[in-house]
């Protein structure tokens, strides 16, 4: 798949303009986020950024979404997830009574 036929989810002109106006803020970001933000500000699609950075589209879109939220003053909620079958009760007993009958 080449860049002409690549999907372009999520990024629009408004996002690009917002990121272009935040150059000073972008320079304060950690290296990976800074590179993503700079590419997005230069008009690269989420797909193009993901291909260059060798990370998922969702990871790139998440970084851009968080940047847009910070720059536009929108609040974000942190979401915690666990894997399928994750033990949510830590400890040596795994949440089970070590002596169930007594």
Short précis:
This protein has 102 residues and is mainly alpha-helical. It is 46% helix and 0% strand. The longest helix has 16 residues, at 57-72.
What does this structure look like?
The protein has 102 residues and is mainly α. The chain has a domain at 13-72. Helix content is 46%, strand content 0%. α1 crosses α3 (31-41) and α3 (31-41) packs across α5. It is elongated, with a radius of gyration of 20 Å.
Topology:
Elements: H1 13-20, H2 23-26, H3 31-41, H4 46-53, H5 57-72
Helix pairs in contact: 1-3, 3-5, 4-5
Structural class: mainly alpha
Helix content: 40-55%
Percent of residues in beta strands: under 5%
> Which series of helices and strands comes N to C?
HHHHH
Q: What's the overall geometry?
A: elongated
Number of helices: 5
- Taking Cα atoms only, what radius of gyration do you get, to the nearest Å? 20 Å
Distance between the termini: 63 Å
Uncertain parts? 1-9
Instruction: Please outline the major beta sheet.
Output: none
Quick one: how many beta strands? Answer: 0
The average pLDDT is 80
């Amino acid at each position: 798949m080449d860049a002409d036929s690549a999907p372009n989810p999520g990024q629009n002109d408004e996002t690009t303009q917002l990121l272009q106006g935040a150059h000073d803020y972008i320079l304060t970001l950690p290296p990976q986020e800074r590179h993503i933000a700079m590419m997005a500000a230069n008009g690269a699609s989420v797909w193009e950024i993901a291909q260059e950075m060798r990370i998922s589209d969702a990871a790139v879109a998440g970084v851009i979404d968080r940047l847009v939220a910070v720059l536009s003053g929108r609040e974000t909620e942190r979401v915690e997830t666990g894997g399928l079958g994750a033990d949510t009760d830590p400890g040596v007993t795994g949440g089970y009574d070590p002596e169930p009958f007594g």
